[in-house]
Amino acid sequence: MIDIKSLTREDLERILFKKGFPKFSPIQIFTWVYRKRVEDFSKMTDLSKKLRKYLSENFYFSRLELKERKISLDTTEKFLFKLKDNSLIETVLIPEEKRKTLCISTQVGCKYKCKFCVSGLGGFKRNLEVAEIINQFLEVGDLISPKKITNIVFMGIGEPLDNFENLIKAIKIFMDNKGIYLGKRKICISTVGITPKIKELIKLSLGVKLSLSLHSAILEKRTKIIPVNKKYPLPEVLTALGEFVKKEKFPVTFEYILIRGFNSSKEDAQELASLSKKIKCKINLIPYNPSPHFNWQPPSEQEVENFKEILKKEGVFFTLRRPRGKDIEAGCGQLRARFL
Predict the structure, then answer these.
(1) Which of 9, 57, 242, 293 would suit a FRET pair with 255, their CA atoms being 20 to 30 Å apart?
(2) Whole-model pTM?
(3) Which residue from 233, 172, 186 is spatially nearest to 34, judged by alpha carbons?
(4) Residues 6+ apart with CB under 8 A from 245
(5) How far apart are CA 187 and CA 208, in angstroms?
């Protein structure tokens, strides 16, 4: 049997067309599943009895099992989900005044082992299936209803571009105007810089946002905390990002975690400012979230102010993101699904 939530509407059209069902049937099914949130084919009353029978015999609805839900003092929420093979993933909801952003995982574990992120400490187990990506949105959406998720960021556990095929299918389902229908600019992919996959993404012209885990504009320092920088050097990644900006006509975002005494100096700020002038971008500065697994420390307030002042003098557009969900280990670099 096929998981119905693993299919794009085009996938469903091809399957049903071969069986002689009406061309509009997938639109009806997507409306039931993603808008009316009905997961019982027998209750999809505007479908023919023949189609309902066929669907029931050939398709099923997967779910995620909620194991834990934590709410931070700052209202950030973290959800621990159990998968069918007993693997665990975490998903984070970040509520703000005008939007609610869901941070979605794409893998069980991570193979890239960035030296500030706990997600890779247990190694890489597997890619998430399309439905497992989609179900994070649906499960959290059901839990917070009638409130709505307005944005999604692929910044949870795993490297999204390392699960490229399933990521793209999930994005197409998220953007489908007969289903969930998230706007393309409401979706952001975060990557450590997998150059070949960035180039593949450019060819697809999806219109989604792209964010790079930069964390240092100095090559040697970036390699120290992001080992994959050896395989895909920053200059090569920046060239691909430049092509992305040119194609999409939209800036990329550089995520920059500020770590005390490592990447928070005057030289670091100047190098970042210099890099930012080579490509249309915006910068998110994020004070490091401490972890017992690493020796790094958050920057002092003075370090942050000094860094900001240099960027301001250089005319760099940036945002200082205050850590969210630290008390429930839901901040940047803290997701691990370590329980059970």
Answers:
(1) 293
(2) 0.93
(3) 172
(4) 251, 252, 279, 280, 281
(5) 6
Annotation marks residue 90 as catalytic: yes
pLDDT of residue 340: 37
Task: Calculate the CA 250 to chain-centre distance.
Answer: 18
- Using an 8 Å Cβ cutoff, are 337 and 117 in contact? no
**Token pair belonging to 194:** 């997998």
The one-letter code for the residue type at 338 is R
H or E element at residue 126: strand 124-127
Q: Active-site residue 332, yes or no?
A: yes
- The structural domains of the chain, ordered by start, are 2-60 (1.10.150.530), 65-328 (3.20.20.70)
- On the 0-12 / 13-18 / 19+ scale of CB atoms within 10 A, 57 is exposed
- Dihedral sign for Cα 195, 197, 202, 206, please: negative
* CB 157, CB 121: distance < 8 Å: no
3-state secondary structure of 90: strand
pLDDT of residue 332: 53
pLDDT tens-digit map of 239-289: 999 999 999 999 999 999 999 999 999 999 999 999 999 999 999 999 998
Could you identify the residue written with the tokens 């920088």?
229
- Contact of 67 with 82, CB cutoff 8 Å: yes
Catalytic, out of 77, 90, 129, 159: 90
The pair phi, psi for residue 162, each rounded to 5°, is -80, -10
Q: What is the mean pLDDT of residues 184-207?
A: 97
Distance CA 21, CA 15 (A): 9
Do residues 226 and 114 make contact, with C-beta atoms less than 8 angstroms apart?
yes
DSSP state of 300: P
Contacts of 154 (CB under 8 A, 6+ apart): 104, 106, 160, 167, 187, 188, 189, 190
**With bands split at pLDDT 50, 70 and 90, how would you rate the model's confidence at 153?**
very high
Instruction: Give me the residue label for tokens 């390392």.
Output: 162
